[in-house]
Design a protein that fits this description.
It contains eleven helices and 13 strands. The protein is α+β, with helices and mostly antiparallel strands. Bound molecules: zinc ion (3 copies).
Amino acid sequence: MSEPPGLRTFPGYTEDEGLDLGHLSATAVGAIVQRIADGSAALFADVAASVGYCSKPVRLVGSSHTVDGRTGEIVGSFSSDGAPLGVVYRPCGNRRADVCAACSRVYARDTFAMVRAGLLGGKTVPQEVASNPLVFATLTAPSFGYVHGVRATGGHPTGGRCRPRDTANRCEHGRPVGCMTVHTDDDPAVGGPLCVDCYDWASAVVWQWWAPELWRRFTITLRRSLASRLGVSESRLKGRASVQFAKVAEFQARGLVHFHALVRLDGPGGAGSRAPLDGGTLADLIREAAGSVSFVAPPVDGADVSRRLAFGAQLDARTVRTGLPADDDDDDSLRAEQVAGYLAKYATKSTGTDPASPRPHLTRLAHTCRAFAQRAASSDPAGDHEAADDASEQGRPSPYALLGKWAHMLGFRGHFSTKSRRYSVTLGRLRRARHRYRQVTANAARNGVALDTRDLEARLLADDETTLVIGSWSFQGSGWTNAGDKALADAAAARAREYARWRAEGKSTSNR
Ligand SMILES: [Zn+2]
Ligand SMILES: [Zn+2]
Ligand SMILES: [Zn+2]
């Protein structure tokens, strides 16, 4: 008999267990020794913990006063002079796991809480929302040529051959149109085209550049077809129903984004009010809208063509909740918690361009972005006859002029996670609540009083502010000020991640 998981001890979680610092530079070692010698090591540990072991925190100097809005009385003052280490550190807050692992975990947790509240209620969203129809939709990019990929076989997501075809079949460049390899995820060829000359790099980049526009048109079309389904004009739709969504963009191996969206149908009273249609009908409307949306993208310059852009044929709209009274939870159906987890995970993913070993096809896409931006900048609208026909277009900067700035995002300029206004609580409000929580716990500790937990969450999330914070802060810089601090913060963050994983594993074993 093995011991209960709750009683297992986390390896390396005792006070005297050292952190794994990996290979340290001589400067880092010197800086750590210095912290120990001048007695600031404990202060540093507190500061690092207060920013959640952010790997590149922002440093601020200045002061602020907390004022009671009703009486005008100053109830507290704070200055960076009084802060440990003489400067205020704030977490960088970066979404991407490859930029700051610690902050991206906070971002993922907030995204999860935001998405979950929109599904099941809580955090200012009424509980009744849990009976509104819900669809999980994935809108993809179309194909711009055959690419290598990890394929499924016999019910397994991997192990299948890439693209089994007669090896004698060649494209016009003499390259095989098939590939018999069984690729794995870490294979740099995955996502890259079978033939670099057949692949339509230009259209792929133009599609990605306009993907946010396609999404915008999709939401308009969906609302329009919902109105017509209900037999009301668009302006009257509000009186019958509204569509709310949370969406994230996820980069695929080929370097193009997919949109994953949770679409919820509310009744006239908003979240929790009875919807006039069920989830199955909503899924049909979503499929129709996504399939019919298109946009004609203007050419990059006089030598280019305009392109009609649309979403890919591979379109998925699954009903998570029908919203019908007799909605039996069958085991195959997606769970609300599960989809919230997917969205949170996708939201922290990067483009997959590892600067140390860039995948050739992603490098090529980024290069195409820069080349287009250059062409857009050097094309003279006045000398271009097509453009000159339309006087209003004259002298206006090309829509592709900024493509170069987004080359590192492979031309995707949209937000990674967005939600409609009334889907759920905002990420900003969750962040503010966390900040207030830190303040009230610090106050309770300082004054030696017990933390009042009654309605604590509601108070933290409350929008009405009776106290004002007036301050003047200036940006001193970003990042830890020496290599030793950074090494310690990163090691502590890694240890915290291991601990979270270990705890999650323990939970799943104990559930068995
Ligand atoms: Zn950070
Ligand atoms: Zn292949
Ligand atoms: Zn070819």
